[in-house]
Amino acid sequence: MTDSSHKSPEVENDGDFRVHVFSSSSELLEKLHEKWSSVEKQPYPAMYSSIYGGIILDPAMMVIPIDDHMVHRGHGVFDTAIVLDGYLYELDVHLDRFLRSASKAKISSPFSRSSLRSILIQLTAVSKCKSGTLRFWLSAGPGDFLLSSTGCPTSAFYAVVIHHDFSQCKEGVKVITSKIPMKAPLFATVKNVNYLPNVLSVMEAEEKGAFSSVWVDEAGYIAEGPNVNVAFITQDKELVMPSFENILLGCTAKRLLELAPKLVDEGLLKGVATKSLTMAQGKDAAEMMYVGSTLPLLPIIEWDDQPIGNARVGELTMLLSDLLWDDMVAGPDTQRIPVPYV
Ligand SMILES: Cc1ncc(COP(=O)(O)O)c(C=O)c1O
């Protein structure tokens, strides 16, 4: 910072950078509110924190303790569900995966599954958000700064609602094979907060003018994208997804595998399978797509500068996209929980 006339309380004086000390919490709060006062629409209408023991509406207070094991050691797991048209889509499937991740990360929840579920639904209701994402975390909790979490007496649960408008993806994107090493199966199958490889992988793609990337393992088999699964339509019209032993089992991929047999019954697809697929087989596919909660399906038309099929958005891809989209906006009650807005 070079301009000492701006609003920052930190002052630079003759090259001697003096750090401001906040004299009171009210002064600090005022500073935090200053930041949010210029924001036209608050993107995070509500947060839950088990540390506070309630729902927070003030964005300036949506914070996590610095001694939380998730903050300084990455000892936390998370998940994301979608809010669409005032319904929570597949909340229970996300919650099940969340608790499986927590168990593998040796984090016990401070609440029962039904209490977690109730908190998430109440939070969404209070947020008044009808379209967005509901992101939630379980952490080993605050305590100390050591490696072991034995000094963290109580685990912590955080959740936030984020406004976001969704629409069906109809344009195709380009992808690259990631050069960032992929995670070992233990870490890839647990949805934990260590997303540095995922972050670098998507940034690598953006730097190369691609939308995102695809991980291929050392043996040459296709794995997944940095926050999505991948799916293919083979030349003989089979829907194939790489098997999930070593990657994250996506909730959307799982649902797609349940819905896609309808196209087999209609004679449009020849079959639906999860199996190992080499990069060469993937690049030879007729159609390719990303599959993930916030998409839910995104056509891929080029991989490493090579066209996929005829380099146009595939017909079967769009039929699968319609199946998922219809499920999100008008699917059965088991998939969609109505949010009891107040
Ligand atoms: C690494 C990774 N793979 C796949 C997915 C897709 O999972 P979902 O369909 O549950 O969003 C995600 C997103 O959660 C992810 O982070």
TrEMBL record:
Annotated keywords: Pyridoxal phosphate
GO BP terms, alphabetized: amino acid biosynthetic process; carboxylic acid biosynthetic process
Keyword Calcium in record: no
InterPro entries noted in UniProt: Aminotrans_IV, Aminotransferase-like, BCAT-like_C, BCAT-like_N, Class-IV_PLP-Dep_Aminotrnsfr
Pfam family for this entry, one: Aminotran_4
SUPFAM superfamilies: D-aminoacid aminotransferase-like PLP-dependent enzymes
Cofactor: pyridoxal 5'-phosphate
Source superkingdom: Eukaryota
Repressor as UniProt keyword: no
Family: Belongs to the class-IV pyridoxal-phosphate-dependent aminotransferase family.
Name the UniProt record assigns to this protein: Uncharacterized protein
Organism annotation: Flemingia macrophylla
